[in-house]
Amino acid sequence: MTGVRAVLLVAAACSAAAAQDPREMVRHAVALLDRNLAAESGYSFLERHETSELEPDGRVKTHKIRLYDVTFVDGSPYRRLAGTDDRPLSAEEQRAEQQKLEETVTQRRNETPAQRSKRIAEWEKRRQREREPIKEIPDAFNFRLAGEERVDGRDAWVLEATPRPGFHAHSGIAKLFAKFRGKLWIDKADHQWVKTEAELVDNMWWGVFLARLDKGARLEVQMTRINSEIWLPKHIAAKFSARIALLKRLNMEIDTRYSDYRKLSAASPGRSSTKPNRNGSAPLEASVTSISGFPASVTGRRISSSVSSPVRCETFAGRSIPSTRPPR
User: Fold this and answer.
1) 3-state DSSP call for residue 165?
2) For residue 99, is it within any domain?
3) Are 212 and 203 in contact (CB under 8 A)?
4) Count of domains for the chain
5) In a domain, 13, yes or no
């Protein structure tokens, strides 16, 4: 019995050591991340995309904010413009977006089975291509357990990542990993990858001197826990300087925030049992309800048509939408 107990204790110690091995921690977190991203199509959400072009001295040259309502129409995503510059669309703009939505629903419903399969397969291929480099991260870097911090009120391990000498990338994007260093936060309870900060440590070129991304570019990604069952993007921020064709200089800040995730109906989201109109198009109310799985209006999100009294996106879309700008 004593010998058996000793073996069990050694096995437990080895398991605990493996659980704390930084590379294996990252490998497990990457597998969970890939699973989460694959399941993202089961959710609709709001996407607030903010871009700023800066002057060399840091002053804002151009600034643009777009709010999108993203959902899935018969197997692939559809992004509906819902607001601009933290203001609701005008009545005319709303009608135009509604018409685009209706046309998309009609077009996809009138597809042949072959056309539908091709559309969905092309979208899945793009998604897979975006996820492939992530799977190479555990082998592309050396990791060091640097401590513990709290992220959104949850305990997380902090890991430092530096390029791993001798790494051979399989995808084009993964070949760029050698020019980055950063930090990763992994949730201690769920073992999910919850936050990333990355910095470009050397200039990066594309093409034959067509574009150069300057050293010092920064990227931050944060995930959030949805319905206690899945982790999906919450915030992506990038700041970089680049030179295009050795002529044009770009200084950019890009900030994208995701909110109001809603799980789509398991019973064929993007389809409706309502018969089409005589012209072959689906009734608008049925189309919108079937797309989002929620009461019809704007894929289930009622958006004010009033523009005489501007309201921040946080209220006009009927829910909390992150904003980095003060009220106007």
Assistant:
1) coil
2) yes
3) yes
4) 1
5) no
Q: What is the DSSP string of 277-325?
A: -TTSPPPHHHHHHHHHSS-SSSTT-------SS---HHHHTSS----SS
- The bridge status of strand 87-88 relative to strand 76-84 is antiparallel
Going through 85-126 in order, the beta strands assigned E by DSSP cover 87-88
Taking Cα atoms as reference points, which of 176, 182, 188, 185 lies closest to residue 213? 176
Residue 1 lies in a domain: no
Indicate whether 327 belongs to any domain: no
pLDDT tens-place values along the chain, 328 residues long: 444 333 333 333 333 334 579 999 999 999 999 999 988 888 999 999 999 999 988 899 999 999 999 999 998 999 999 999 999 999 999 999 999 999 999 999 999 999 999 999 999 999 989 899 999 999 999 999 999 999 999 999 999 999 999 999 998 889 999 999 999 999 999 999 999 999 999 998 876 667 888 999 999 999 999 998 899 999 999 999 998 876 788 999 999 999 999 998 754 434 333 333 333 333 333 333 333 333 333 334 433 333 333 333 333 334 443 343 443 3
Its domain, for residue 64, covers 22-316
CB 204 within 8 A of CB 219: no
